[in-house]
Design brief:
mainly beta, 5-stranded mixed sheet, about 0% helix, about 65% strand, elongated
């Protein structure tokens, strides 16, 4: 493709991986291992038909390759509730130093207070060179299973 025909997105950076897991191990050589890649959580609790809010800790892993893009960018993780309400975004500044197959990896340790069941989204935005683009959208389903309350006696 002729150079003048390429769009800015075709120069990079490129999203290589985006997922949620329970834990990430980082080895001394910098290699990451993702443990238990998940896209849903079942919350079983004694109580009413309406789910009580509960905190949940997880890791959101992002990996980008620079392509021909160099310099400083920002990566934002925007949580969105099932009713489309946006929570505060987590922002990570990154620097793409080398062209080609080099890049950056982010392991965002997150804890969210899930207050409603349903399909939550994590929109991933890349900002740089005067533009912002959504590069991925990660689904995460919260399933609530109310448990019967046992009576003693």
């Amino acid at each position: 493709m002729a150079e003048e025909m390429r769009t800015p997105d075709e120069f990079g950076p490129y999203l290589n991986a985006a997922f949620i897991c329970e834990k990430v191990l980082r080895e001394q050589d910098g290699v990451m291992s993702a443990i238990r890649i998940i896209d849903r959580v079942t919350h079983a609790a004694p109580g009413p038909d309406v789910m009580e809010p509960f905190p949940y800790r997880f890791a959101l892993v992002l990996n980008f390759k620079s392509g021909e893009a160099l310099g400083t960018y920002q990566i934002s993780i925007q949580p969105i509730k099932p009713n489309n309400e946006k929570l505060q975004a987590a922002v990570y500044p990154v620097n793409f130093e080398s062209p080609g197959d080099r890049g950056v990896g982010i392991c965002a340790d997150m804890q969210i207070l899930f207050d409603v069941p349903g399909l939550w989204w994590f929109d991933i935005y890349l900002s740089g060179e005067g533009r912002v683009r959504r590069v991925s959208r990660i689904p995460f389903r919260i399933i609530y299973l109310p448990q019967p309350v046992k009576m003693s006696g």
